């Protein structure tokens, strides 16, 4: 049962998942969840803001888990480990922001608090009176008499996420992050000049060193940047160069759900169908869980080409060619951060093209009904995200994104292209053929 605005309920669980949900509709804006950790109504600093550009609090108590479409509903989820929240923090504000419109155009907006262990619903608040607001405080978790409670708030802001964050003490930057400047050679030193006369007594100097034994004050931290890029069919590409994202590490994350559609598919198709997936050499996990693999085909400017994937332990290397590395093989989807590829953009001049793709290793025979979100998070510049469209063909491989050097710029192109392997052909060879990589393939397993 949905709570009324201003109502509150006890939260007995030591950890909760806060699910922000809505119904996608034509012309409706995208929605993002965020959290602010407060001490007496204010953040202590900008690190107390958890959102898509800053997905984890330093304490580890609050984490942004990301978006997942599920049938006719989309969700964006936060995990709050209440037992780990620092004692000084008395409130965790649960907020929503609309990207590209107002909440009056977002149907079915709600927030649910779920027991992170059992999944039981502990509280729910449905927002029914939104109009021109572009940000909302939907609820808050707060301490009371040694425990935690949830309060339904429903306070709107017409100034978006920036206005909401500023209201709680966050420093918000204007515009995208500036592109880092490439190093330049030091200028040729001029001939030594004659010594300058001493400064007159009392004349100010450019800087005064701190007294002996006292450290210089730390520079002020950079303000929080709220920019992000969402790729769609109508706007499928973005230049990382223009976003300033051409150096440092870029993490590519695949966040997928195994608890819903994955298990339903396993039951629908049965054990024999799942075992048939192993006919190409794959080993089916004993539990029969859905196992998706995040992979990358790469081609460097010197003609070197290959693949990064979990098969045959081909996890890549971040500091040597191919400058791409897979961090883990998540076989169940239980890891909140999913699987991640990291691309070293300090060597981006060596890349000719990189194709990010995902395969079904076991647990289902197609992507039909599966929910997944892809996020590319460069160290500099705005994050790039998109969701996969509904799959209507028996595909076991999906090309996600193509990264190329185009016109002197590093460009990310949304692919979201489902491919159907021919009988006896592996998903990897299928995506190779579709994009003309021309690699020689041999059977491999985990």
Descriptive keywords:
446 residues; mainly beta; Lipoxygenase-1; 2 domains; seven-stranded mixed sheet; six-stranded antiparallel sheet; 24 strands; 9% helix; globular
Strand content: 35-45%
The number of E-state strands comes to 24
Give the distance, in angstroms, between the N- and C-terminal Cα atoms: 46 Å
Number of domains: 2
- Approximate shape: globular
Order of helices and strands: EEEEEEEEEEEHEEHEHEEEEEEEEEEH
CATH second-level architecture of the largest domain: Sandwich
Task: Briefly say what this structure is.
With 446 residues, the protein is mainly beta. It has helices at residues 160-167, 240-243, 261-277, 427-435; strands at residues 8-11, 16-22, 30-38, 49-50, 62-70, 73-80, 91-99, 110-115, 121-126, 135-144, 147-157, 229-230, 237-239, 249-256, 291-300, 305-308, 316-317, 324-326, 339-344, 351-362, 372-378, 384-387, 397-406, 409-419.
Provide structural commentary.
The protein is built from 4 helices and 24 strands. The chain is mainly beta. It has 2 domains: 8-167, sav2460 like domains (Lipoxygenase-1, Sandwich); 229-435, sav2460 like domains (Lipoxygenase-1, Sandwich). The chain has a 7-stranded mixed β-sheet, with no helix packed on it. The radius of gyration is 25 Å and the shape is globular. The model is unreliable at 176-209, 258-288 and 331-337 (pLDDT under 50).
What is this structure's SSE topology?
Elements: E1 8-11, E2 16-22, E3 30-38, E4 49-50, E5 62-70, E6 73-80, E7 91-99, E8 110-115, E9 121-126, E10 135-144, E11 147-157, H1 160-167, E12 229-230, E13 237-239, H2 240-243, E14 249-256, H3 261-277, E15 291-300, E16 305-308, E17 316-317, E18 324-326, E19 339-344, E20 351-362, E21 372-378, E22 384-387, E23 397-406, E24 409-419, H4 427-435
Parallel strand pairs: 12-22
Antiparallel strand pairs: 1-11, 2-6, 2-8, 3-4, 3-7, 5-6, 7-10, 8-9, 10-11, 13-24, 14-19, 14-21, 15-16, 15-20, 17-18, 18-19, 20-23, 21-22, 23-24
């Amino acid at each position: 049962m949905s709570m009324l605005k201003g109502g509150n309920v006890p939260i007995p669980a030591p950890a909760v998942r806060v699910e922000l949900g809505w119904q996608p509709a034509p012309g409706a804006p995208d929605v993002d969840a965020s959290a602010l950790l407060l001490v007496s109504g204010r953040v202590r600093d900008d690190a107390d803001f958890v959102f898509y550009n800053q997905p984890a609090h330093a304490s580890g108590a609050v984490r942004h888990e990301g978006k997942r479409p599920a049938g006719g509903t989309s969700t964006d989820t936060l995990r709050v480990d209440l037992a780990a929240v620092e004692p000084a923090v008395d409130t965790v504000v649960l907020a929503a922001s609309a990207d590209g419109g107002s909440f009056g155009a977002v149907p079915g907006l709600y927030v649910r608090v779920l027991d992170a262990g059992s999944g039981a619903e502990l509280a729910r608040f449905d927002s029914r009176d939104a109009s021109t607001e572009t940000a909302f405080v939907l609820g808050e978790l707060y301490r009371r008499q040694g425990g935690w409670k949830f309060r339904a708030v429903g306070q709107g802001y017409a100034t978006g996420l920036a206005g909401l964050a500023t209201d709680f003490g966050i420093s918000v930057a204007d515009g995208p992050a500036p592109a880092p400047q490439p190093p330049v050679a030091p200028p040729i030193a001029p001939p030594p000049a004659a010594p300058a006369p001493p400064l007159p007594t009392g004349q100010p100097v450019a800087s005064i060193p701190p007294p002996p034994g006292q450290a210089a004050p730390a520079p002020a931290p950079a303000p929080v940047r709220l920019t992000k890029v969402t790729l769609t069919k109508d706007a499928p590409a973005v230049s990382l160069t223009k976003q300033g994202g051409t150096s440092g590490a870029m993490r590519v994350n695949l966040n997928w759900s195994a608890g819903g559609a994955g298990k339903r598919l396993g039951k629908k198709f049965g054990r024999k169908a799942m075992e048939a997936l192993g006919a190409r050499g794959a080993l089916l996990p004993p539990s029969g869980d859905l196992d998706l693999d995040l992979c990358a085909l790469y081609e460097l400017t010197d003609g070197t080409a290959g693949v990064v994937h979990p098969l045959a332990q081909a996890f890549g290397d971040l500091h040597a060619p191919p400058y791409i590395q897979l961090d883990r093989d998540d076989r169940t989807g239980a890891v909140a951060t999913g699987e991640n590829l990291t691309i070293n953009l300090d060597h981006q001049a060596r890349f000719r093209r990189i194709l990010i793709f995902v395969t079904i290793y076991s647990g289902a025979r197609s992507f039909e009904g599966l929910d997944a979100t892809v996020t590319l998070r460069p160290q500099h510049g705005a994050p790039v995200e998109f969701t996969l469209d509904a799959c209507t063909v028996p595909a076991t491989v999906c090309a996600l994104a193509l990264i190329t050097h185009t016109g002197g710029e590093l460009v990310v192109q949304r692919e979201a292209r489902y491919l159907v392997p021919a009988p006896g052909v592996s998903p990897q060879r299928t995506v190779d053929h579709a994009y003309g990589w021309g690699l020689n393939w041999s059977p491999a397993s985990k």
